[in-house]
Specification:
By secondary structure, the protein is an alpha/beta fold. The protein is built from nine helices and eight strands. An eight-stranded parallel β-barrel has the order 1-2-3-4-5-6-7-8, surrounded by five helices. Strand 6, helix 7 and strand 7 form a beta-alpha-beta unit. The protein is globular. Bound molecules: 1,3-dihydroxyacetonephosphate. The site of 1,3-dihydroxyacetonephosphate has 14 residues, from strand 8. Belongs to the triosephosphate isomerase family. GO terms for molecular function: triose-phosphate isomerase activity. InterPro entries: Aldolase_TIM (IPR013785), TIM_sf (IPR035990), TrioseP_Isoase_bac/euk (IPR022896), Triosephosphate_isomerase (IPR000652), Triosephosphate_isomerase_AS (IPR020861).
Length: about 240
């Protein structure tokens, strides 16, 4: 199976000029890979990626309604019309700003209805892990974010779940591959109570770089990676994409 490598550019880079040069450097370098590469730039730069071959396009968030009086929002349907096929949802950086599992659930539903692939992010904080609550937190995030979403909805696209421990994001302190594997198996156990596992892909994110990327796929058994900082470095991201 092709690993899915998702570049989450977050709110970077700062200008269109920089985005153009980053895009051009990255797209030149990642030509030869058998993994599924997905770019999730800020929505403002999505147009740069249209009609380019060799990778998929995604967004970092969406609203759950298709259209209407929701100033400042963008819908899954609108993102789909720009060529997006993946949408990251419930990232901890959004949960930190007040996004709840209830809103994430509505968004997952809307993304599936629009025929796109949701990438549902889950992960515990440092404090929650120190209190030994990591499994409880993940289970709660999964069950609440998918509540009422039927198996039938997953029939065509399926669902990606990204395990991103908050303490590993942007810290240079990735989760140990053995621990990451334990968490992945736990996620599978929880999800298997709701959906057939062949509809679910599990990704790892948190300080992934070209030196550790392979371990999560080949040793821990993840289906893909969600890459933040290293996706802004063309050299580093192309190395990651060529590992598989
Ligand atoms: P870093 O790779 O910078 O740790 O970010 C991970 C992340 O948040 C991807 O969504």
């Amino acid at each position: 199976m092709k690993p899915i490598i998702i570049a989450n550019w977050k709110m970077n880079p700062a200008s269109l000029k920089e985005a153009k040069s980053l895009f051009s450097a990255v797209s030149k370098k990642i030509k030869k890979t058998s993994s599924e590469i997905v770019f999730c730039p800020p929505s403002a730069y999505l147009f740069l990626f249209q009609k380019k071959q060799g990778f998929k396009l995604g967004a970092q968030n969406c609203h759950w309604e298709e259209r209407g009086a929701f100033t400042g929002e963008v819908s899954a349907l609108q993102l789909s019309s720009l060529g997006c096929s993946y949408i990251i949802l419930g990232h901890s950086e959004r949960r930190k700003q007040g996004e709840t599992s209830e809103t994430v659930k509505n968004k997952v539903n809307s993304v599936l209805e629009s025929g796109l692939m949701p990438v549902l992010c889950i992960g515990e904080s440092r404090e929650q892990r120190d209190r030994g609550e990591e499994q409880k937190v993940l289970e709660q995030q999964i069950l609440e974010s998918l509540e009422g979403i039927s198996q039938n909805k997953l029939k065509t696209k399926g669902l990606c779940i990204a395990y991103e421990p908050v303490w590993a994001i942007g810290t240079g302190m990735p989760c140990d591959p053995e621990e990451a594997q334990k968490m992945m198996l736990f996620i599978k156990k929880v999800v298997s109570g709701i959906y057939p596992l062949d509809k679910i892909k599990i990704l790892y994110g948190g300080s992934v770089n070209s030196k550790n990327a392979e371990e999560y796929i080949k040793e821990s058994g993840y289906d893909g990676l969600l890459v933040g900082g290293s996706s802004l470095d063309p050299e580093e991201f192309s190395k990651i994409s060529k590992l598989f």
